[in-house]
Amino acid sequence: RQIPRNMLMLYPHAYQSLIFNRIASRRIKEFGLKLIPGDLVYVEQEQLEAVEEQTQQCEALEEQKEEEPNDEHLEVPEGDEALEEESVFKRKVRPLTAEDIASGKYKLSDVVLPLPGHDITYPSNECGAWYEEMLAEVGLSSDQLKHKEKTYALAGAYRKMIISSSDLKWSFRMYNSPEDTLIASDWELLKNIPVAPEPAEAEANYMALLLEFSLPTAAYATMFLRELLKQDTSSASQTQLEKQAMAKE
């Protein structure tokens, strides 16, 4: 194999992301911004800890059975046999019921969608079937994503269907030149470079929108801005906007 593994994995991971994006778009298009039974959410921390504890007990019992295969008094707790067949990762999520939705405890930002894989739980509604449909388009199934060669095995993962910022702050600021410093960077603070004084609105040439927000890991500010402003955030579009602004001077 000529391609390094880290680079090679970009291709299957990109395919997983493509499926996720298609599922998320179709989910919102067909069902809107409301919760539906079968949507997946992460289980509460207490439940997850209980699941992991049960799994550890099953593993300990399995080791004990291997050491004492003729012990007739060794009993497996009821329900643990099924737990052995299901990984902890599959039980990190659970489907919402109609009662969960009616309780008002959950919102759309709690819903997760899986990246396709052999070791995840799919939604128990129409969305779950869409995964197999899309995988079948390229001759795949979830079972085929399990491979003895680690490089080609895709276990899957979970991502929030939508991400929102809870600490968004915004303000307008007037300025005269595209080269004016509107927000001091760390480097400018170290160099004591002053922020350009804000001119009066009647005297200013431009108005800037200043945004301050936080996003969780693996969420991109460029995508947040695109959705917030409903404007193309590609480098080509931004370059064109800059040229237009410079031409006005």
TrEMBL record:
SUPFAM superfamilies per the UniProt record, alphabetical: Pseudouridine synthase
GO BP terms, alphabetized: pseudouridine synthesis; tRNA processing
CC per GO annotation: nucleus
GO molecular function: pseudouridine synthase activity; RNA binding
Secretion signal, residue range per the UniProt entry: none
Keyword Glycoprotein listed: no
Domain TRUD: 1-164
Matching InterPro entries: PsdUridine_synth_cat_dom_sf, PsdUridine_synth_TruD, PsdUridine_synth_TruD_insert, TruD_catalytic
Pfam families registered for this protein in UniProt: TruD
Residue ranges that the Swiss-Prot or TrEMBL entry lists as coiled coil: 44-71
Keywords: Coiled coil, Isomerase, tRNA processing
Keyword Isomerase belongs to the record: yes
Catalytic activity: a uridine in tRNA = a pseudouridine in tRNA
Protein family: Belongs to the pseudouridine synthase TruD family.
Full protein name: CG6745
Native organism: Drosophila simulans (Fruit fly)
